[in-house]
Amino acid sequence: AKCYLRQGEWQAFLLRGDWMSQKAREGVRDILESYRLATEHNRTWYKAWHAWALANFEVVTSMTVNTDQDKGPPLPEHIIHDHVVPAIQGFFKSIALSQTSSLQDTLRLLTLWFAHGGSSDVNQAVNEGFTSVSIDTWLEVIPQLIARINQPNPRV
Description:
By secondary structure, the chain is mainly α. It has helices at about 1-15, 25-40, 45-65, 75-95, 105-115, 120-130, 140-145.
């Protein structure tokens, strides 16, 4: 697991934050596969789950950075299935395994949920994830939850 995590970190370093160029797409698949293998080899390791979730989050973020999610077209279903849902599942797992505050992971999770919660797959992943984390997880993000209380999407 440590070797796969290290390999993914090295591959991500070589991308230099360029997650969406044509040249980077093959590298992104390799990075995600390395992190996925790290989670498979140690299912209880926070770092592996965090890295996998964060890499998927980076892919989604790089695709939506120039679009307004409320007004622009939604992401294609294959992106939701391949990156948004795995990111949500990974963040829930890393939050559940974290020994310290997982505020950044929780905020990223909320970002994905609020932006893509209209998808039934995303909604299902969020509902399943709620059972895996402590209720206290949400205390730190009450202001963000209140700020989004008028969410236009009824699913969310």
